[in-house]
Each structure stands twice: as C-alpha cells, then as structure tokens.
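User: Structure tokens for this complex, please. No commentary.
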Amino acid sequence: MKLASLSAAELAIRLGGEGVALSIGDFAICLKSPLSSVAKAVAFFYGDYELCAVGSFIDYRVEVAPPSVIRRWFRPQVNFSFDGLMPFKPLPQVQAFAMFEWGLNWVIANNAHQFLVIHAAVVERHGRALIFPGSPGSGKSTLCAALVNCGWRLLSDEMALISLANGLVTPFPRPVSLKNASIDIIGRYAEKAVIGDVIQETAKGSVAHMRPPVSSVAAGGRQSIPSAVIFPRWQAGVASSLSELPKGQTLLKVAENSFNYNVLGITGFNALADTINRCRCYAYTYEFLDDAVETMELVVQDG
Amino acid sequence: MPSVCLLHFRTWADQCVAFEAASATTHLIEQPAGLLLEWASSGPLSLQQLSDKLREVVTVERHDETFPYVVDTVRNFVSLELLEIKEATE
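Assistant:
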C-alpha cells in the first residue's frame, strides 16, 4: 500500500498520532509530525513510497515538531528529534520539511554502520552505478538531477551506502535537494521535473526538493554494482573535461567524504579499497549539463 | 632491522595505500616506497635485504643505486612512526 492511498486527512492524523512508517530503500522510517506543512510535503514527495506493514520492524523513528505550544505565536520554530534526541538547534517552521530531510541524512550517516556511508550522489544506468562524491557546492546534486531526468535511476543524491556484506551500493532514493542557482537550472533543463516550493534563507541558501522518479522509488530494494567514482565540479567558462585519477589518491579523497570511514576501522578500509578496486576513477569538470550527461553516458557504456 | 606496526595495504601500479589499524589513519604512499613498507610489514628485514628486494623489482644491478633510497625512505617511515628500527640480536 502506497502513501498516496491515504487521504490528506488520514495522513495528517497518522503523522500527528502514531506516525507514518515508510519503506525507503533498505530502511523502515517512522515519521511523526503535527505540522500540516510537513503532511503536505510528505504527500507531495513521498506519495509513491510503500507504507510499512503494521507491526513491522522500524529502523529509525524521527519527529518534526514545534518546540512548545507558546512559541508557535512568535517566529514559529521546529525541532527534529530522533529516538528522543534533538541533534540540531530549532529552525524556522517554514523549513520543517527540509529539516526532516536533513535530519534523516544525519540519522543514516551516524547510525547505519552496516554500510560504508559516503557523502555522494549515486545514479545507475545499465546496471552500473556511478558514484559522485563531493562537498556541498561541487555540483553533484545538479548533475544527479539532470541524469535522473534523462532516465537514469536515482539511488541517492546525498549518500552512497556501500554494503559491508557484499560491496554493492544500496539505494536510498529520496527527494533530490537542489540549492540556489541549481533550482532554476534543473527547472529549465528538465521541464518534467517535479520541484516543490523554494524555501528561502536556509543555512544552505535557497533550497527546493525534486520528487524522485517513480521507477527509482519502486527499485529501492535493488542494489547496484559500483562502476565508477567521479568527482564532479561545476565551473563557468570551461570545456567539459574528464581526467583519470590514481586509485590511491581516489581512496583518500573518498575517505575524506565518508561519514563513518573512521568509525568502521579496518572493515571500512577494506570496503572502500574493494570499491575503488572495481571502479574507474575520474575528476570531471563541466559547465553545461548536456555535455555532462553525454560524458556520463560514455563512462557507463565503457563498462 | 625495521619492524612495523599493524598495517593493511592496497597496492596499485603507481600508488599504495596503508591503513594503520591502531590509529585508523590512512597513508597514501607513492611507489616504490609503498613496496618497501609492505615488505617490511611481512617480517623483519634488514636495510640490506630491503635494498636487495628493491633492486630485483627495479632491475638495477648496483647496490649503491638503491641502498641510499632505502635508507632515506625507511628514515621517513620511522619519523611517521610507521616503522621502528631494532638492532639485530645476533
């Protein structure tokens, strides 16, 4: 049963009560929130996700709620909590849905140690996953959104989950977070992209989310083989340029972009080294998305 | 004789990565220095033995071409606390 099968009223009641348990990739996430803005955004972005069966195991329980009843009248705020912990300071209530997304990223990055978690976007074509590690502003989400709108499968725009059990990438498909200029760039590039409201003046600037493709959500249980690690960098006025990186150097760069490499110790080192071993490694600079999409097609076809 | 702390290696053509389990530190090492560290980790070897092994790999005949490099490289590894020098017992 998909979340979209709930009426708006039913969804709001569940979110404000026992919570709504969603199946997202490998995880069962239970979200509670009394806020109508969160209910509206969840219906908009997560309508295609399966609800977990009643009584099934929940991996993580999170809540997005106002700090107090009184505070609602003065610059209303919102808190994110996970198992009763509040890891962040409250944010303006208009950022409630974005806070859920950011908070869920934090939960997975800090708790899902059955994976090597890399700060990276991951997309797949022909059964081969391309991993785009990168710091904020590198252009990985923009490139990821463009590829997804050209028929690539979205595994994640935020984190590559490398299974410690088999070395495959486990999908965690969720709304793609677009920031600042990327919002208009993707809006123009992909007319069919479904982009939600723009939230202004967040810590990351203007933020909007793009709904993930139905096919990517439906394939959320299917792992993928890592095929290439590519460090993208958007730069104005440069020609598209793909250059091979030495594997040792790539390993260190990816380790710097991992959330839990140091936590996992030798297990993390082996998982990362195995991933690098099976991947081709590149640095990629681009200005135009058409060039980038064409180049990524060539990379994935090269196998 | 160099001996080594607990290291795990992955080696590629021109680079080697060593993971130091005790500190969870990862070191990127250019070749052939990585080979020297890896050999030393497989068992205590003298500087002379390391130099001989390196000579075989890089196919040079003269010992004095590789020995200074081995000494310098081992000295660097010692300063990084990846190796320690122990006197031979006999």
